[in-house]
Design brief:
Number of domains: 1
Strand content: 35-45%
Largest sheet: 6 strands, antiparallel
Strand order of the largest sheet: 3-4-5-6-9-10
Helix content: under 10%
Structural class: mainly beta
Distance between the termini: 18 Å
Shape: globular
Number of strands: 10
Length: 135
């Protein structure tokens, strides 16, 4: 992602994958977010409780609002990050979704606290080498 590779990817409880330094910040903002210094994939950045590693999460204060999704990196497709959403009970109304290179560098924001930004069985593909996304 953004030319950076690693064998370990820290995951926060608020649905953030960091290839560099990570933060537990749960107050989502429009990208680039100063909380994350290196390449970061934010599949559904919000104040959440993560129930399993495959991101079956619910809102911290509203446990009946569930979100289930995956973030995929493929060794044979460097620079490509794919988000696959299986369940999005609130459509992403209070989340930030996208990728960023650094706290002040390139970024792609798909949604920022946007009602109905997500749907069940939706996929987003970010091409970080070309600064493109589709979904």
């Amino acid at each position: 992602m953004y030319g950076y590779s690693t064998s370990t990817v820290p995951v926060t409880s608020n649905n953030v994958l960091c290839l560099g330094a990570c933060s537990s910040d749960f107050t989502n903002v429009y990208f680039p977010a100063s909380s994350f210094a290196g390449p970061t994939a934010l599949g559904f950045w919000n104040d959440l409780i993560t129930s399993a590693f495959a991101f079956y999460a619910s809102h911290f204060g509203q446990l009946s609002r569930y979100h289930q999704f995956q973030i995929l990196f493929r060794k044979n497709l460097p620079g490509i990050v794919k988000f696959i959403y299986y369940q999005a009970s609130d459509g992403g109304a209070s989340a930030t979704i996208g990728v960023q290179n650094s706290s002040s560098g390139l970024s792609m924001t798909y949604a920022f606290t946007q009602v109905n930004a997500m749907t069940n069985t939706m996929a987003l593909i970010f091409g970080t080498n070309m600064d493109t996304f589709s979904g």
